[in-house]
Structure formats: C-alpha cells, structure tokens
Amino acid sequence: MDEKKKWDPDFAKRDKIKKFLDKMIPEFSVNLGGATSVDVTKHGIDKKYGIHKLHHILDIKISEMIFIGDALFPGGNDYPAKEAGAFSIRVSDPNETKRVIEGIIGCLDKGHFKNGFDDAK
After folding, report:
1. b or e along 12-48 (b: 16 or more beta carbons within 10 Å of the residue's beta carbon)?
2. Which residue of 45, 46, 57, 93 is surrounded by the most CB atoms within 10 Å?
C-alpha cells in the first residue's frame, strides 16, 4: 500500500489520464479513486446508481444509508454516492474503514442506534 500511495499521492497523474480518457471515450464516465485506480463505466452506472438500487431493492431510505469511501471529492469514484444523499464518511485506507465500521457497530443496539445517539435529528 505504501508503494501505491507514493505513485500518485496528489492524483495529478491520474487526473491527466482522466482528462485524456474523457476526450477519447466521451461515451463513458471516468472517475478516480483509491491510491491508483481509474474507474471507467457507462454513464450513470456508478456508486450513485448503486445507492439508488439498494434503496429500491432493499427499501432502505437513502437518508438512512451510510457510505464509507476514500474518494468523496468531485471527480472521485465515491463522490456519486455522496451526491445521491447517503451520509458519507471519508477514510484514507482499509484499516481506517475497518475502524469506522467497528465504531458504527459499537453504537448499535439490535440494528438501531442506541438511545440518545441520534437525538440531534
């Protein structure tokens, strides 16, 4: 992981790749994520699409979803989930993701937040 993070820490290399691909294959969406990835998908088939599918298939309100990702910035491959309206938590790596999920689970009681946790609504 350290080597991957060194390759393009400021996304500058992949941003050049993205701009090139945006022009070369305009029929596709190109987004950046993680330490080295470039996602190429059909337009509209992204994490926003996935959030909406979960909403329809599982009948979960988007406002009750939590999305965890490392690329929640505009142009990042996780940004569409944030745009969809899911509560989004930015993490830096898989270990932080694990800690965040453990923290969320620690706040649950039988699948619901413990009394007092969500009183700020």
Report:
1. eebeeebeebeeeeeeebbbbbbbeebbeeeeeebbb
2. 46
Closest C-alpha among 72, 75, 66, 89 to residue 31: 75
Q: What is the pTM of this model?
A: 0.76
Contacts of 70 by beta carbon, 8 Å cutoff, 6+ apart: 33, 34, 76, 78, 90, 91, 92, 93
- 66-69 and 87-90 strand pairing: parallel
Amino acid at the residue 11: F
Q: What are the helix (H) ranges across the chain? A: 2-7, 12-24, 47-58, 79-84, 94-106
| Per-residue model confidence as pLDDT tens digits over 21-66 | 999 999 999 988 878 889 899 998 999 999 999 999 999 999 999 9
